[in-house]
Specification:
Shape: elongated
Keywords: DNA damage, DNA repair, DNA-binding, Glycosidase, Hydrolase, Lyase, Metal-binding, Multifunctional enzyme, Zinc, Zinc-finger
Strand order of the largest sheet: 1-6-7-5
Order of helices and strands: HEEEEEEEEHHHHHHEEHH
Structural class: alpha+beta
Number of helices: 9
Protein name: Fpg/Nei family DNA glycosylase
Strand content: 15-25%
Number of domains: 2
GO molecular function: 8-oxo-7,8-dihydroguanine DNA N-glycosylase activity; damaged DNA binding; DNA-(apurinic or apyrimidinic site) endonuclease activity; lyase activity; zinc ion binding
CATH topology of the largest domain: Helicase, Ruva Protein, domain 3
Cofactor: Zn(2+)
Radius of gyration: 20 Å
InterPro entries: FPG_cat, FPG_N, H2TH_FPG, Ribosomal_uS13-like_H2TH, Znf_DNA_glyclase/AP_lyase, Znf_FPG/IleRS
Length: 286
């Protein structure tokens, strides 16, 4: 799943190549992906792109007619073409959900792998008409999201910190991968309760969040979409590295599996050597 650093890089990539160009045609080929009907998708045809921005993990392409907003979800991605293929796409027979062709022949596809379809496309007059954008919390890297405001977000929340960092209505932009990375840098258990953290731990977590995301954004910066996934994977410390040695202490990275996701952590760095119970296995043994 692309998270804020990769989405930030995609926004910069698209802005450099699309602003000032007109959309020749926007074609939906996965009708379940389109979540709006007014304005219609063909309102974008002939519209000039005036800007590309990010709202959390949403990408917003602004035109002089409407906003094209999309969320790549778990298995979605953007494929750029200097010359969009001329072949027609058959709805329902391709991983392509949306094709956008620009006036110079370039453009992009939004694709989604797997059978569980979550990629979402919106055509709206205002990006805040998108429900997911309307309920976003403060952006994790926003200049005005200070340590004091971060502490206030955590105050009184008897929630495990892993889930809190992933909750877009609380803090925008962080997903499963970077929440694992942030907690490893902060040396915190993913099951630590936010409300019980002393001020020095909150300060350390805030610094870990900003540093981890800033470094990841710097790594992603300037890379084309085709290289972003590999760049992300190559620089992860614990996420998706179960069974491998921790790069800090050498202990084995462990995981905890849930019904639809998993998390990774280092027992020595984060839990005082304690191996956390696998949630799926624990339920099976009851």
């Amino acid at each position: 799943m692309p998270e804020m650093p990769e989405v930030h890089a995609l926004v910069a990539f698209l802005a450099e190549r699309t602003v000032g160009h007109a959309i020749s045609r926007a074609t939906i080929t996965s009708f379940s992906a389109l979540k709006t009907f007014d304005p219609p998708i063909d309102a974008l045809d002939g519209a000039t792109i005036t800007g590309v921005t990010r709202h959390g993990k949403f990408i917003d392409i602004e035109t002089d007619a409407a906003h094209l907003v999309f969320h790549l979800a778990r298995a979605g991605w953007l494929r750029w073409f200097d010359a969009v293929p001329a072949t027609a796409i058959k709805p329902g027979r391709s991983p392509i959900a949306l094709r956008v062709r620009l006036d110079d022949g370039s453009g992009f596809d939004l694709t989604e792998a797997g059978s569980k379809k979550s990629l979402a496309v919106y055509v709206v007059r205002d990006p805040h008409e998108v429900p997911g954008i309307a309920r976003l919390g403060p952006d994790a890297l926003a200049d005005d999201f200070t340590e004091a405001e971060f502490a206030e977000v955590l105050r009184g929340r008897r929630t495990q910190i892993k889930g809190l960092l992933r909750d877009q209505s609380i803090i925008a932009g962080i997903g499963n991968a970077y929440s694992d990375e942030i907690l490893h840098v902060a040396k915190l258990s993913p099951f630590a309760i936010a409300a019980t953290m002393p001020p020095e731990t909150v300060a350390h977590l805030y610094d870990a969040m900003r540093t981890t995301l800033t470094d990841a954004a710097a790594i992603a910066s300037g890379k084309p979409p085709a290289e972003l996934k590999d760049a992300k994977r190559a620089n992860l410390r614990v996420h998706a590295r179960s069974g491998q040695p921790c790069p800090v202490c050498g202990d084995t990275v462990r995981d905890v599996n849930f019904h639809d996701s998993s998390l990774q952590y280092c027992p020595t760095c984060q839990t005082g050597g304690k191996v956390l119970a696998d949630r799926i296995l624990s339920r099976l043994l009851k």
